[in-house]
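Extended Data, panel c. Modelled sequence:
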Amino acid sequence: MKIKSITAHPLKYPEPHDHGALRYITLARVEAEDGTVGWGECISQFPDSCHAVKIVVEHGFAPLLLGKDALDVEARWQQMLDRVWWYGPQGIAAFAISAVDMAMWDLKGKLTGLPVCNLIGGKQKDRVIAMASIHLDMDDLDWTVNEFRWMAEQGYRIVKGGWGTRPESVFGTDARRDLELARRIREVIGEEIDLVLDVLGARVRWDVQTAIDRLRQLEPARLLWIEEPLPPQDYKAHRTLKQRINTRIGTGEQEWNVDGYRRLIEAGGVDVVQMDPGRCQGITGCRKVIPLIEAANLTFTAHTWSSAINTAASVHLVASSTAGRCLDFKPHDSPMQHELVSDPWLQQDGLLTVREAPGLGVTVNEDVVKRYAFEL
């Protein structure tokens, strides 16, 4: 079956989990000659990068891939990677590869009648943990604590929060307030639910000693792990920190490809590797990293906080490996989770069922794609 068309669709939408702020993603639509359509996504995040992705997909990749075998996904992935040799496999190119590759796996599953999980090595688990993830409000701790109380009542097994409502007032910038919030969250969620807090080290920029001091102070909150406690590319600092604290370290969401993840893992400063198939060269890119994680006896979590398409890809990836721990999940209704697809993901007891439907297992509503489309 040959590829008939490839298009990219920048979308803009208000995100309830980011206090109503506008957020941006880019979808890829790949159609086979028989009319079967696969959908993918990248977390391109800003208006300019969304449209840059569209240019790369439609003017760089489409002419290259049209008429090629739609079932040979890894060969198409390699063609895209070879195409970007001059401007590099990271950044905009990685976003574009991610979206098209994800759509190709969805298309292959639909053409063969198989769920993606079966195509990428088989299902290791029938259900995966949905980690309820929100942006904190560090100016209104009562609101934030009530959100965690509600998530606990909904049956989530792991809950996570990070960042804040404005850059000058976020988690990690005020020790007293951080510790108060962690204490209050632990009180309302009880002893059995796991808690993750996200520092967003690329923006907050703790030094190693600050991280050591703060994480020792946070030990009574019994964090499952701390996310991005340091600037993510400082592998040496992560190794030093890991040797000095008891809390596990989660990082990796800002890596782009297998080379970056190899450096991260070999540096020895991570316990929980974060991957986002909408960023690190798609499902194929993640598949090349997972064996490295397994060989190092680490675990991984899918950093997926955008649309139901990326959630679907993450479900299949986490389910395909015994090293898969969980995936980020928006606990409240969101346009890209509950409008974009006619079959949104619904958690039960903090778990998502791995669907047996062909492809990624979600049905995209193209009218909704048009509704949220935007131009620069």
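The CA atoms of residues 38 and 107 lie 4 Å apart. This feature is highlighted in the accompanying rendering.
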